[in-house]
Amino acid sequence: MASVRNLLKKKILVGHRIVLYKRIKKSLRKWIFSFLKEKKSFNILTREELFKNNDKYQILSFGAEENIIVSEPFNGVNELPNLIKTTSLLTGSIGKFTLNKPFVAEVINAELVGSAAVGFDREGSLITETVMQNLVNIEKYLPNGIPAQTLILKNLPSFGSHQLDTACSLLNWWSKNYSHWIVDCLLRLEGLEYYQKQTKRKPALIIESNPPTWKIESLKLLGYGLDDCIPWKGSKIKVNRLIVPSFRREQAFPVSPAACKWLRQRLLSNLPNIESSQRSFSPRIYISRAKTTGRKVINEDDVLEALSPFGFVAYAPEEMSFADEVRLFSQAEMVVAPHGSGLVNIIFAQNLSVIKLFGSTGVPCFLVLAKSLGFQYGCLTGDYNSRNNHSFEQNNNIMVDIPKLRVLVAEMLNNRYGDRQPVITTY
C-alpha cells in the first residue's frame, strides 16, 4: 500500500513539474515576443491586413460564408450543470456563429522560419495565417503558437538560404497533434487545390521531417505522395510564392461544416476497396485509451460490460491504419469516448450520436464540432473540484458512473430511433 502511495505522490510531483515547466516556457515566449515587437524587429500581418492589400497578396476567395448553431448538449441525465463547471468556455461555445468565406493568398518573396515554419512577407511582417486561425485580439495569442527561437532566428543573418519556387506549409505549432493535423492542416488543402485550379501551379507541400505513418497515409488518401512534399529542417527558407490557405475554423472552436464535408468526401472516395469479410466494424463504437497516456477510463471493464447489450465494440484508433479509422467512423451511428484527439474522426461520420466522457475538467471543442456537423451530443462528467489545475487535471483518469452511462445511452438511442428500434433500459 505504501508503494502505491509513493507512486501516486511521484506521479503528482512529475505532473506539477511539467505544469511549472510549461508556464516558464510560455512566459519566456511572451517576453521575447513583446521585446522584439517593441524593438520593431517585425510587424504583424493579420487576415484583415491581407485583404486590405488584396492586389499585393493576390487573395482568391472561394466557397461561401457559413452560419452554424451550437445548441446545448443532450441533457437526458442532467449532466449540463456539471459540464458548465468543468468547461469554463462552454457559455461562449453555445449560440450562433458565422464563419467567414474561405480564401487562399499568394505571398511573393516570403520566408519560412523556425521549427513551426512561421511565414514572413518580404517586408519581414509575420503572417498570422501561417500560425493560427483568425482570433479577436490575435496578438495576445500569437506567442502561444510561435517558438521563442523562431523570432530569434528570424533576426539572425541568413547565409546562403535555400529557395523554393511555389510552396505551402502544413506545419504549425500544433500540427504534431492528430486532431490539429486534421482540422488545421488537412482542411486547408481545399484552398490549396482551389489555388492550383485557378493558376495551374502546383505548390509543394512542406511537412515535418520523419512524419508519422498516419500523416503519410492521410496525405496519400488525398492524392499527395512523398514526391509532392518537402521535409522541413526547421531553419530558414526563401519562397518565391508562398501559398497560404485560410484556416477553416474561427475563433476558439467552430469548424467549417463545408470543409469537413469536402474532406470526408475526398477521403471516402479514395479509400481502397477491401473485401467486406476482411474488415467489418460495429456501428456502435467505444474508443479506448487504455494504451495511451492520460484520460484513461479507470473502470473500463465495467463500461464495456454496460455497453455490450447495446451492441458496442471497443476500438483503439492508435492501433489502426488511417484508412481504417476513416472506415470505422464513416459507418458509425454512435460513439462513446473519453476526451482525446481521436474524436476528431467524427468528421468522417455521416449521421452520428456522440457521448463524451469527461474527467474533472475539459474543453468543449468536440461539443462544438459535433453540433456544427448536425450530430446529437451528450456527455458524462466526473466530480468537479474548483481547485483543479486545468492544464494538469484534464489529463487525469476518468471514473465513469455506470448507471448514468446506461441511462444516457438508452435515452439517446431512443431519441435517435424512437419506436423504430426498441432499446433495453432495464438491467
CA-atom Rg in angstroms: 23 Å
General form: globular
Low-confidence stretches: 384-393, 422-427
> What amount of the residues lies in strands?
15-25%
Pfam families: Glyco_transf_61
InterPro entries: Glyco_transf_61_cat (IPR049625)
Domain Glycosyltransferase 61 catalytic: 178-351
Protein name: Glycosyltransferase 61 catalytic domain-containing protein
Explain the layout of strands and helices:
Layout: H1 2-38, E1 44-45, H2 47-52, H3 54-57, E2 59-61, E3 66-70, H4 80-86, E4 95-99, E5 103-113, E6 118-120, E7 126-127, H5 138-145, H6 148-154, E8 163-169, H7 178-184, H8 189-199, E9 204-208, H9 213-221, E10 229-232, E11 236-245, H10 257-270, E12 284-287, H11 300-307, E13 313-315, H12 322-330, E14 334-338, E15 353-357, H13 365-372, E16 376-380, H14 390-393, H15 402-417
Parallel strand pairs: 1-7, 8-9, 8-11, 9-10, 12-13, 12-14, 14-15, 15-16
Antiparallel strand pairs: 2-5, 3-4, 5-6, 5-11
Helix pairs in contact: 11-15
Could you explain the architecture of this structure?
- This protein is α/β, with parallel strands linked by helices and 427 residues long.
- It has 2 domains: 28-57 and 103-247, no CATH class; 64-100 and 255-427, no CATH class.
- The protein has 15 helices and 16 strands.
- The strands form 4 sheets. Strands 2, 5, 6, 8, 9, 10 and 11 form a 7-stranded mixed sheet that branches.
- Strand 5 and strand 6 (118-120) form a beta hairpin.
- Helix 11 (300-307) runs parallel beside helix 15.
- The protein is globular, with a radius of gyration of 23 Å.
- Residues 384-393 and 422-427 have low confidence and may be disordered.
